[in-house]
Amino acid sequence: MTDLNDVILIGRITKDVGSDERSFSFVGNGTAKAIASLAVNRSVKKGDSWEDEVSYIDCEIWGKTAENLKYKLVKGKQVCIRGYLKQDRWEKDGQKQSRLKVVAETVQLLGGGKSAESNPFEN
Fold first, then answer.
1. What confidence tens digit (pLDDT) does each residue in 59-72 have?
2. What is the CATH number of domain 7-45+52-89+97-108?
């Protein structure tokens, strides 16, 4: 029996995708891979007031979706990402390490971010 692993996030891109080799690359078989860091705010009541609590979540975007969105995933752009959680595990200096990330299945551009003037591919 398969368990449920489905994530939907709405947040803002923290850094332009493609600004360095870590955020956009082609893997061995020629498939594009983009890593987008997403800032997701959540309001939390503390005493009599509400405060924003921010989580930063790494999201992997693969294939044509990554290629097509490379120049649109800019700092401040609001997006909706639907996908699943994946845990990476490794050992460093004898210590076991792990990290959760979201592997995107769909990415929807919502709003905000830089103007179209900053994109050389838009008129």
1. 999 999 999 999 99
2. 2.40.50.140
Residues paired with 109 in a beta bridge: 79
- What's the count of helices (H) and strands (E) in the chain, helices before strands? 1, 6
Nearest in space to 42 (alpha carbons), one of 31, 32, 30, 54: 54
- Retrieve residue 25's tokens: 């690359």
- Written as one letter, the residue type at 59 is C
Beta bridge partners of 26: 32
| Position 122 pLDDT exceeds 70 | no
Encoded tokens for 76: 């401040």
Answer yes or no: are the C-beta atoms of 34 and 60 closer than 8 Å. Answer: yes
